[in-house]
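Build the 3D complex.
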Amino acid sequence: MPRVSVGPSSVEAPPGQSVLESLLRAGVWMPSSCNQGTCGTCKVRVLSGAVDHRTSPLETLPQEQRDAGLALACQSHPAGDVEVAPAGPASAGAGEVRTHPLRDLVARITGLEDVATDTRRVLLSLDEPLAFSAGQYVELEVPRTGERRQFSLANTATEDRVLELHVRRVPGGAATDRWLFADAACGDEVRLTGPLGDFRAPEEEADDGAPLVLLGGGTGLAPLLGIVRTALERHPDREAVLYHGVRYASDLYDTERLVDLEQRFASFRFVPVLSREETRAYRTGYVTDAFLADVASARGWTGWLCGSPALVESGAAAFKRRRMAPRLIHREKFTAAVPAAPGSPSETLTSPLTRTGA
Amino acid sequence: MTTTQQPAELAWLDDITMTELERNPYPVYERLRREAPLAFVPVLGAYVASTAEICREVATSASFEAIIPPAGGRTFGHPAIIGVNGDVHADLRSMVEPALQPMEVDRYVDELVRPIARQYLEKFEDAGRAELVADFCEPVSVRSLGDLLGLESVDSETLRRWFAQLNRSFTNAAVDENGDFANPEGFLEGDQAKAEIRAVVDPLIDHWIEHPGDSAISHWLHDGMPEGQTRDREYVYPTIYVYLLGAMQEPGHGAASTIAGLFTRPAQLEEVVDDPTLIPRAVSEGMRWTSPIWSATARISKEPVHLAGLDLPAGTVILQSYGSANHDTGLYDAPSEYDLHRPPLPHLAFGAGNHACAGIYYANHVMRIALEELFEAIPNLERDTEHDVDFWGWGFRGPTSLHVTWEV
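Done.
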């Protein structure tokens, strides 16, 4: 069996697994984020041996980079023994840090609850616990389609037996309209792979209790719920503020849960913001503007952004305007699902947002 | 003194003045690259190499060796490391290089530079406005190197004034029709700086001779010398002046030019602020875009040579215009534009051959750390559009000031 080596680590690479998968399955950390070839975080330099680039998009890995020996770890497969070194940003610790091993699991649906307009909470029970960090995501196999979709976990790391996903319906979406909002039922089995992603709460020893601000759009709330609860449990007195942006009041969910959290943690504030509706109960506008109005300086704070690319971009700009150090800004973009193959149904092109479904 | 009869089509070279070169050398050098990539420029009293190809060839050719440009020689004296060859050059390189080896730099550079960058940022980071050349880039550069050399007792303002005086003296290059310096009084401020330097450094040298320390200059005196002997201070001083001009000034120039370049590309500035791992690439492009050592080094032919279509006798001085070579359209598309994403070709900002800058690794890390700390503290940095960004210099070049604002 070919082997993949990075830094001091060397792992077996079974057929059918990408370079990244082989490493993550063995618990070896490699910078990675989208796992679908679009973000470039997992770019590696091939030091020896060769890889097959497979489905690596040219936009992320242009020909000249391939010629220069670069590859996308998440898309490329080893062609024999291969040694790689991370070439992207944030490569510190690659191959040295042990991460939660990537696993294939079979879960059972134990909850399907409508919580807001076109929004469902899905609970997946596991026979054995899954090790992950708050904020990471899993990939579900969409029954009957051969497709996979990514969904963020709303759990903290100790909630490792029942995974909680927040799913927004996408008209015509294979995973949502035609499965989780259609014939999916409690008791059904679901195949999943995880954990994945670099949007995750820091290790406890690296968490110094600094203030944090979280901006989530729609079901982008999910990973923030895991992250903010983890942060508050570690440092109950820390300052934390979570902005949840939706269009209408009927899109809000988990408000009671968050108000309850406010009551338990005196320095935590929850701020729902509606962009398309004026009410007496909630603020109107965009979450980034609400943050700018409320927070005079975010120096030394950590920031967490999850939602559409527009929200993540404007949120990062707002954080920097309030002088948050860029290295403390964490981003999870819900990006368009990449069609599984040329000629696959056009809905996957318009579909949208991975990690909350499609 | 080399003199030459110009062909008629190059008569325009007679009209070049130092003032226009110092204000903006690019138009003249663009024309030189196009019409006469190796040409005798009367006001400089020397040949000028303006393309990447010729600069590289001259820098690495066995037919040439180093010579300090005349105004530089008048300023520094002999033997300055940039103008000597053979055994003396080898000894001076062996004297300065230990502290500049990458592994050695890695050992100390973060601990040296980061607290200094923080210290200067603390003075203005909550003010909402600053002039980055005087408030940050130059002070970080001189304080870091000053502490490394053993000049902790010399304040940063003095170190900045010294390099500025030495700079103007070193680049006081204009000659008259006889080949004599056109402005001899221009060397006086360099002489004055050197007198001040000697008044400060002589007692330090006295001390280090008796009590070797960990400062770079103390090592220069002792390293490689037989027990009980030190290098003569007169032998070391010209190289001290090289440091107190170029090594003090250029990391500040390079950092300021990089920021000025990024201000011309706001999206690229944003990228670099968001991803500090791009800073080394941003600095490299800044060094190409406005090369700090623009035209301050020279070579002299050891024998008759045929170069760029010209027959040159032995003893011909060629000024290496690295700032021009780095704008060579044969290598770079739209070279006058700052572009973080241009193909990262090697550039000549640090020279080439056996006289290539000894401080490349050190300087790059000083600039990197300075920019990391700046963008970390002020991620919302913007150019203050009420002030223009003016560049100055032909021998050495960088922004004269860089006014910025930010929300606090």
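The longest strand of chain B covers residues 297-301.
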